[in-house]
Amino acid sequence: MRLVSWNVNGIRSIVNKAKFLPVITKLKPDIICLQETKAERGQAEIDLPEYEEFWNSAKNRKGYSGTAIFTKVKPESLIFDLPQDLVKRYKLEADGYGDPNNEGRVITAEFKHFFVVNVYTPNAKPDLSRLKLRHKLWDPAFLEFLKRLEAKKPVIFCGDLNVAHTPDDLANPKANEGEHGFTKEEREGIDNILNEGFMDTFRLFHAGSGHYTWWSHFSNARARNVGWRIDYFFTSEALRSRVKRASIHPEFEGSDHCPVSLDVDLK
Predict the structure, then answer these.
(1) pLDDT band at 53 (very low <50, low <70, confident <90, very high)
(2) Structure pTM?
(3) Which residues are catalytic?
């Protein structure tokens, strides 16, 4: 089974630029998870009859955030957003930007032997004004949600986590130390995920720097590969022997992010 994750930075834009279907045609995913769709279902002309589509769009801000799962395998159930008991426990309330649990940031599909969780993690913002929400509220609530699912069956989760975990995950770590996307608080969130037994699948196969999934639009950054690895696939430790390949696909353009993929043997 192949899973693909991609922050499309606007599904309508990427479809209009004819950059979406080539990813489907060439990578042939069984499940594709999209982030930052910035749309509701039906607002982009997508002809993929072999896939079922499930969308979670921002509720109070049209054209903002949003996630979607397209799958050839029919899910047994779906969960949209984080559960309300976790929202209340961690006080994930609206801030100056909005309600993070109303922004279409999480969609979960349950399959026979595993869960797939698609997430678009809140950005800490350049002035770090959303760092506390992310570090103290969102990250622990999301991790508890993953562990709750994992108590039932193994978890595969993916998406744009808006953080480079280690200095190898961005081209200029010294210059960006303490900047949003590379603060110790955001990186601690990934440490906690690993400490709870989840695996960064890409790092099972690839070491070192130079592997990036997002590039700034400035200074010809993508052509020079001055980027960040902020898009991930994690799995439960129970799936270690079934993970066969994890890849980054910078050849696909149209967004400031590129797709990432995971091949797993789930037979």
Answers:
(1) very high
(2) 0.97
(3) 120, 160
